[in-house]
């Protein structure tokens, strides 16, 4: 369901997060990777929306061209030569995003096409995931491989934002 992979230099990660990323979130996430041909003005948000549909007048409308997660494999220019880029490269991540889960909220119950690597940046014991019927807490200071091909959600039952780096893996 999940496994702890590696100790992360959390101080460096938080420093880069605060300096480079925190003020750039749009709709609670930003792209850390892009497609090769992405214009620079779109690179921080290109992979943050659905790759298969657009929302038009409140309805899901299929995209003309369905994008693939694996196409988002170039680190955005803002993160070149950073510790965050090292993490992305070490775990061979694609479609990596910084995600914020707001206080007193949760994600829909869903499954993903691939497993994900989660690197918690800011969290607490009131933030957790439910995978199938199991509750898990991912503590700061580690990278985790999470089997998100199983039905799951993330819950923030605290009064603070929860921030994770989340990237796809094969």
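^ Assign residues to that structure.
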């Amino acid at each position: 369901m999940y496994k702890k992979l590696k100790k992360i230099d959390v101080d460096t990660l938080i420093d880069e997060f605060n300096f480079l990323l925190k003020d750039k979130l749009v709709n609670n996430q930003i792209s850390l990777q892009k497609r090769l041909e992405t214009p620079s003005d779109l690179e921080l948000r290109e992979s943050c929306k659905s790759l298969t549909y657009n929302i038009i007048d409140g309805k899901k409308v299929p995209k003309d061209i369905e994008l693939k997660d694996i196409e988002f494999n170039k680190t955005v220019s803002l993160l070149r030569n950073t510790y965050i880029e090292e993490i992305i490269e070490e775990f061979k991540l694609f479609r990596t995003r910084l995600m914020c889960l707001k206080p007193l909220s949760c994600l829909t119950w869903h499954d993903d096409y691939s497993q994900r690597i989660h690197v918690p940046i800011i969290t607490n014991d009131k933030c957790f995931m439910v995978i199938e019927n199991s509750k898990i807490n991912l503590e700061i200071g580690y990278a985790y491989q999470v089997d998100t091909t199983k039905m799951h959600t993330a819950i923030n039952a605290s009064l603070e934002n929860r921030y994770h780096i989340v990237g796809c893996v094969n």
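The chain is about 10% helix and 40% strand.
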